[in-house]
Design goal:
mainly alpha; 2 strands; two-stranded antiparallel sheet; 1 helix
Length: 85
C-alpha cells in the first residue's frame, strides 16, 4: 500500500485548492485597495501640487504579480518650468 491513498490525496488536493483560492482572493482584494489609495494620492498630487502625471508600476500593475510584500511604486511627473528644456 502506498504512503498516501487516493482518498487522502483527494482531500489534500481539495484543501490545497481552497488555500490557493483564498490567497488569490486576498491578493486581489489587497490589490484593489492599494489601487484606490494610489488613485486618491494621484488626485491630491494633481490638484494640490500640479503634478502632470502619476502612474503605477511594478508588482501592483496587475494583481497576478502582487505578493504579500508588494509595495506601491508611484512615480510622479511634474510640469516643466517655463523657459527650461
Amino acid at each position: 500500500m502506498s504512503r498516501f491513498d487516493a482518498k487522502k490525496m483527494s482531500l489534500y488536493r481539495k484543501s490545497a485548492q481552497k488555500r490557493s483560492a483564498k490567497k488569490a482572493h486576498e491578493l486581489r482584494t489587497r490589490h484593489q485597495w492599494v489601487l484606490s489609495i494610489a488613485n486618491q494620492a494621484a488626485e491630491i498630487l494633481k490638484n494640490e501640487f500640479q503634478a502632470q502625471k502619476v502612474v503605477v508600476f511594478g508588482s501592483m500593475v496587475a494583481w497576478q504579480n502582487t505578493h504579500i510584500n508588494s509595495d506601491l511604486d508611484l512615480p510622479v511627473f511634474w510640469m516643466k518650468l517655463r523657459g527650461r528644456t
